[in-house]
Amino acid sequence: MEIIISGVGIVSGIGFGTAETLQAIAGKKSGLGRLTLFNSVYQNTVPVAEVKASNSDLKQRLGLPEKKTFSRTMLLGLLAATQAAEDARLPLRKGLRIGFISGTTTGGIDRSENFYHAFFVHPDKGRLRDVAVHDCADSTEQIAARIGATGYITTVSTACSSGANAIMLGARLIKHDIVDCAVAGGVDALCKFTLNGFASLKILDNAPCRPLDESRAGLNLGEGAGYVVLERKSDDTPAPYCRLAGYANVCEAFHQTASSPEGQGPFEAMRQTLDAAGITAEAVDYINFHGTGTPNNDLAEGNAVKRLFAKKIPFLSSTKAFTGHTLGAAGGIEAVLSALAIKHGLLYPNLNYSQPVPEHGLRPVTGFRQGAGINVVLSNSFGFGGNDSSLLFSKT
User: Fold this and answer.
1) What's the whole-model pTM score?
2) Strand, helix or coil at 7?
3) How far is the CA of 319 from the CAs of 69, 95, 247, 292, in angstroms?
C-alpha cells in the first residue's frame, strides 16, 4: 500500500505556513532571538525561536473567543493542523474516517505554570482553568474536535522523536484500515519548564546554535507545530507532495539523555528505515539532520551517517538554526520541510556552519538551492532515552 502526503501545515519561529517558512529559509533569516513570552533569568542570555504572536493574536487568527483559556500548545497546533487539513481538502471530502495523532512534550505546562505562580503565594489563589489544560491530551482532543477528526485520536510523547513517531503511527493506522487518512505530526510551546530543564543539563548555547560545526556548544529551544495529512494513494486524493516510503523507531537506551558516541541508535533507525522502504543508502539525495548543535548529538548522528552512507554521502543539513529545537514538534516540522524539498526540489542551508566536526568531517549544505532534483529525503528525530526515529520520503 502506498501512503502519500496530501497536505501539510507548519508554524514556527520563521513564519506561519509554507510560503513564509520557505521565504525565510531562502533568505537565511533565522527565527532565533530574545525571549519575550515570559520572564526568565535567561531573558537576555539564551536565544530562542518564538512564534511571533501572542496568545491573543493566535486566538484572533483562529477566530477563538479571547476570554476562553487555551494552552499555547493547542493554539499553535490548531493553526498548523488546520492548514494541513485544508491543504488536503479534508473539509470538502465527506465520509472520511479521519485520525489525529499528535506528538508533544509540554502539553499545557505554559498555563499551569501561571496557576502555580499564584498558588504558591497563597493556596486560595490561582485559576483552575489553567490547570485544566495541563495534560498533553487536552491539546490533542481540542484540535481533533476542531478539524473534524473523529476516527482515531491519540497523543504521542517520546521526547524529541514524538512528532516523527506520530507520523509512523498514522501510517500504520491507515495500513490496518483503522482510518482512511490521518493528520499527524507534533506541537510544542516554549515554557519555563523546558527552558530551565535544558539549562540544568548545560546544553543550551548562549549564542545562535551551530549544528554540525566544530565550535558547536549546545542547542537553542524553539516552538511551533508541523502536521502532514497521510492517506492511501487513489484517484480521489489531491496531488501528493510525496510518499512516506519507510520509517523505523529504535530505542538505544544508552543513557538518559545522550546517544552513544558511535551513534548506534541513530544508525539502526536509519538502516531499518531504508530496509523498510526497500532502497539502498545510495538512493538518498538529502538528509534533514536531527542536528541539534550539541557536542554529543552532532558527533553521534554524524558518525552514524558516515558509517551507513560510506559509499556516497548525500546532501545534508540541519534546519534547527532557523526554527530552534522544537522538541515534540521537530519531527512534524521537519517532515513538512522534507515534503516541500521533494515537491519543489529544495536544499536547505545549515546556518552558522564554518568548520566540520573533526571526528566525521561531514560538510553540510550552506546555501539555499532550488531545482536540486530531490527524489528521496531522510528525516531524523532522536529523543532522550535513545528513542530514535527516521522517516523516509520519496517522489510518488
Assistant:
1) 0.96
2) strand
3) 32, 37, 20, 9
Range of the domain at 153: 3-394
Phi, psi dihedrals of residue 246, rounded to the nearest 5°: -165, 160
Cα gap 187→305, rounded to integer Å:
27
Read off the CATH number of the domain in which 157 is found.
Answer: 3.40.47.10
Which residue shows C-alpha cell 491519540?
154
Q: Which residues, including other chains, have CB under 8 Å from residue 10's CB and lie 6 or more apart?
A: 17, 18, 21, 80, 83, 224, 225, 226, 227, 333, 336, 337
270-316 pLDDT, tens digit per residue, is 999 999 999 999 999 999 999 999 999 999 999 999 999 999 999 99
How many domains in the chain? Answer: 1
Query: Rounded to a whole number, what is the largest CA-CA distance in the chain?
Result: 65
User: How far is 270 from 277, CA to CA, in rounded Å?
Assistant: 11
Per the structure block, which three cell numbers stand in for 207?
549564542
Q: pLDDT class for 256, splitting at 50, 70, 90?
A: confident
The mean predicted confidence, pLDDT, of the chain is 95
DSSP per residue, 248-272: EEEE--SSSS---TT-HHHHHHHHH
